[in-house]
Design a protein that fits this description.
Chain lengths: 430, 430
């Protein structure tokens, strides 16, 4: 017995009309009419329609609620009204597990009629809904496009520790744990490690979980999220980082474009401009109508800037460079000629901060000065500073938040819609 | 100025002999002779030889110790004695950072003459050694081969929570942390999540960190390692899992074969047999000379079995199936007809347990019975059991430990040699 996939039935029919096929999947929907039952079967590829007329089999179907897992064997016939133009007739059903109980949310409805808390409480089931599956397919395609592009550009994938000692980039908002009698922390980012590894492999990336113990309960924050990190050497400035970021995002969009999920969700993919428009932070404050001494952009400023970039440049993306040194981490490279500003940027996507990136310091002496100026202790970073002491190239990098990226692409109102099993201040399960 | 890569110089010379080229990288080695200095430059691609004869430049080189990062511009000439058959003459050097201080371990020597603790203490530097870089390139190629194969086989990549509530698969050896006033734990594996997601996407994989608070200090254990997890539905038994594992490992080996690291390290890649030999656990005890009531295989048994498989089948791989139910987690599917045993396996690679895999239970009632029989509480797993209640296919999967895989491939005596920044009971930094 060879299994066919639902989405391939039209192709099977083209080469072997009237073939007997075997499908395996979930009973997505049963529609019982007077003399016929239509069963929609769901597998990883999509859907197939199965037409049941034989009374004994119709009787059997009554005992197989939606979501029951079955094997169906039947004959393939053409039917213009069926999805894909073919359907399965004269079916035999074999159950592959116990009949499913009725689900708390009806998964066969075109739209999942449930609030976000319900969807999250029953995530293991609600992700089965085709529209939810498509959301995650966008995320998975993004990961694949990110890696493929960087692999081709000579980057090396790395895997860094998620349990770290005190030398995190910022002491605030870290989760602490007992590590064999010592207090350790969950890594807020692979920042320090990816920089050290740039001294090894020159170009590195990592896709992995990062942990923020921020007590924020907003639509934009998660306490664990997936960070797409890249870092590389031999740059002239943060503008080189932005150029690699631009190409990476374009590759991610192309990877998404090749999925069936794009059509299923009817989403409009952004154009990534050949050159993403860049404005200086001081200019951004002015455009957003903020006071010139504001040290950061508020969400409302970002929204306004997103609108402005769309009107002015027709671009969903806007880079704001030169963020004030006071608001950037110690490793940030100053703006040459004016150290109030930095060679760093945020990339706004449709009015939301999506990526932080920039050039880093690369000389040991500059690190000592930067740490001392901030009242931080260089002894907290022995391995990191050792790397800087023994030859580091000018380098920089960026980090993309996967869930933010997907949620802005889909224009959903909460990053949790784009997270398989979100972690927030109130949610530790499922 | 266009940068050339060291490894590409021969190709550049073929199309443009005597071309002026610009290279960027680390001064890997200086050899000062009476009238000439040979500089070996290292970049992400490999090495290039630069010949310095001009006295002023020779003088400049004195101030540029090994590991200093430079830009070199010079003329390309053929020289049969140089690596790649070409070298750079009449060079100009520009430093791209401060001169490097002498490294604690000499990185230019063909062999890194340092003990494991020293290598790990200075990991950010010692990974720069070409032989160390090659080790990680094997790891990175393994990840890439794993993903490529499963992508082609219709798997969906997922990202699951690493902070979990009490419902871990086993309560023992977990790291606990304070999560906004609640005790949470670091995930020991994505097991329960990958099963739930098999109910969604049918075939899933995840590459990510897993955390084990085991107080073991052995050459085989780490407290954080990289787990290559796969799980999929519509299987007949664990033998289907083993078949997918076989093809995945073969793809990983092919991915590794395409790297320069294989040649650099002179490693012999294993043949993955078309059908990996399989023996039952009871048979394995007998072959290893263990008592027939032993509940598990000891490392010495695994070594003997590895030797036996090599002699008997010429295979570096041996699958042992049917592990006793008492030693397997609650979700393990029993062996049909004899529930003392299970539909699970360990895959031994060169005498070391590399992969654990098997078929899982998929019916809600079976889970309730299995948990109750073990004195575990079904209420600890609400979301997981909800998935099982609403239609799960027969399914199974496996998990490969990345660091073990690489360390056995390289036949090194400690898994830490294959880990970028290992975490063990004594090591929390770098």
């Amino acid at each position: 017995m060879t299994r066919s996939l639902c989405a391939s039935l039209a192709a099977v029919y083209d080469t072997a009309p009237e073939a007997r096929v075997t499908l395996e999947g979930w009973i997505h929907r049963r529609r019982q009419l007077a003399t016929v039952v239509f069963v929609v079967l769901r597998d990883r590829s999509g859907f197939a329609q199965v037409v049941v007329t034989e009374p004994a089999v119709r009787e059997q179907i009554v005992g197989l609620p939606e979501e029951t897992v079955v094997r169906v064997t039947g004959r393939l016939v053409a039917d213009a009204k069926a999805p894909g133009g073919v359907e399965v007739v004269e079916p035999e059903f074999v159950t592959l597990g116990a009949p499913a109980l009725p689900t708390p949310v009806e998964l066969w409805r075109p739209t999942l009629g449930a609030t976000l808390p319900t969807v999250l409480d029953h995530a293991a089931l609600t992700w089965r809904h085709p529209a939810r599956q498509a959301v995650w397919k966008i995320a998975a395609a993004s990961l694949s496009g990110f890696r493929r592009h960087l692999d081709e550009a000579g980057f090396t994938e790395v895997a860094t520790p998620k349990i770290v000692d005190g030398s995190t980039e910022s002491g605030a908002n870290v989760f602490a744990l007992d590590y064999f009698g010592t207090t350790a922390y969950l890594a807020q980012s692979p920042q320090l490690y990816k920089q050290m590894l740039t001294g090894v492999f020159e170009r590195v990336y990592e896709v992995g979980p990062v942990f923020r113990a921020e007590p924020h309960d907003t639509t934009r924050h998660l306490n664990q999220y997936t960070s797409l990190d890249a870092e590389f050497g031999f740059i002239d400035s943060h503008r080189d980082v932005l150029a690699v970021l631009r190409d990476t995002l374009a590759a991610m969009v192309e990877s998404i474009r090749s999925t069936a999920a794009v059509t299923a969700l009817g989403i409009e993919l952004p154009e990534v401009p050949q050159h993403i428009p860049v404005i200086h932070f001081a200019e951004a404050l002015d455009i957003a109508g903020a006071a010139p001494d504001e040290p950061d952009l508020a969400p409302e400023h970002e929204r306004l800037l997103g609108k402005w970039a769309l009107e002015r440049f027709g671009s969903d993306f806007l880079a704001v460079e030169g963020y004030p040194a006071a608001k950037r981490p110690f490793y940030t490279h100053p703006q040459p000629g004016d150290p109030r500003w930095t060679n760093s940027f945020d990339l706004l996507f449709r009015g939301l901060e999506l990526v932080t990136g920039g050039q880093r310091l690369h000389n040991h002496a500059d690190y000592l000065a930067a740490l001392t100026a901030r009242g931080d202790d260089p002894d907290r970073y022995p391995a990191y500073l050792e790397a800087m002491r023994h030859g580091m190239p000018p380098h920089g990098g960026f980090a993309i938040g996967l869930e933010r990226w997907v949620s802005r692409l889909l224009e959903v109102d909460n990053v949790r819609w784009a997270t398989l099993f979100p972690r927030d201040t109130h949610r530790l399960r499922p």
